[in-house]
Amino acid sequence: MMKEWNYKKIGKFGLGLTTALLLAACGGNGDSGNAGSGTDEGSTEASGNKVTFVSWLTEQKDLDQAVLDAYLEENPEADIEFVYVGDNQTANYYQQVDLMLMGGDEIDIVMTGSYPDHAQRAASGSYLALQEYFDNEGVDPKEEYIDSLIAPVNDTLYGIPGDAKSWIVYMNKEKLDEAGLEVPPVDWTWEDYAEYAEALTEDGTYGSYFHTWDHYNYLNIWSLRLGNAIMNEDGTLAFDAPKFKEFLEFRKKMEEDGVQMPYQTIKATNASYRDRFFNGEIAMLPLGTFLIPELEDTSSFPHDFETTFAMMPRDVDAPEGRTYTEALYYAIASSSDAPQEAYDFLRFYTTEGAKIKGVNLPTKADEDKMEYVNLMVEDDTLVDMEALETVLNNPQWEDNPNTTAPAYQRQLTDMMVEEVEKYFLGNDDVDTVIQNMMTRGQQIIDENQ
């Protein structure tokens, strides 16, 4: 059983954040940015309890409005307003919303882009406990939503997951056909992946692409263990695990063999994985399902090849079917004047609303994922829907979210990226890099105790 982190120990980072917010809040009331998705139209004064939903997803205004319109048809007395802050940037959103909460602004529903960000704020007292609301509704959240995505903080449930994104491998079908390769089986391994990368590499095309994000340094760990990929069950660092080193060396060897775009090239050219894939410069791309809606967008990303799909490869010592899945977490502000109304709308927003939006996989349990894919993709001419269905409906599929991360997880991953870069750029050997990560990582842990 993975250790459950005690988020009451926010440490110096959390205290510094709180102090900064208090000082900033004293200086103003926290500008809530531009409100308005047209939500006043159709709202009523009947309940007297207005719900303010604060989001950073400005580009989804029309989708949110469609969800609200459907909700108002069933609940005409509801009074819901969407407010958008942060200009599509989570960091900007967090800064503004934290200030709004500290300043006493009228906020009901808030969101975070990851479990660690959610847990940090839940532990600070910003969010309302939700189990009582589920109990009153007669719903078990672990049965209503994907079990592994229901993640309490210090034994208390504060968040409802929505907008699931699972990692799969995108493949250029034209390149596969030219190399005489079949779509990989669902139980393929990273060794198989390297062989495919070699066979798919040709002039102007790399067989594989790993971006600069921290995820790409431990893709194998997702299949080996549940929860936090870089920490052990007892809360100690796992950077010195043999499998961690093995995958760094695996990634470096693919670069040295010329079958993967070099890290140095990606950094120097500020490479866009979308452009590289749609331009045919890379044949395989491990990435989240958030890319699926873009596969038919030939105006933004001109291409004429079909995209096919594979499961994330597994470590040779791992079971079949595990993949990293992440979700947004929606919460109700502890200061909300309309907690029941906010809860009711959130339940709709993360279930029926997810189908109306049609841009991500469901977090609701036992849903047909392909029903959501069909909403994402109107024209499947360039999308191998059969292969995608084989992947998403794999009977061995197991979501593996990181819901055991400490509040300082981002500090650890940022440090890891800094150190690992030295290895890929040839400045340090792998053993030195791992030792540095263990030392610096322990310092981060100590500072947050």
Automatic annotation (TrEMBL):
GO terms for cellular component: cell envelope. Its main location: other. It is found in: Cell envelope. The keyword ATP-binding does not apply. Transmembrane segments: none annotated. Residues 1-24 form the signal peptide. Keywords: Signal, Transport. SUPFAM superfamilies: Periplasmic binding protein-like II. Belongs to the bacterial solute-binding protein 1 family. This is Extracellular solute-binding protein. It comes from Jeotgalibaca ciconiae.
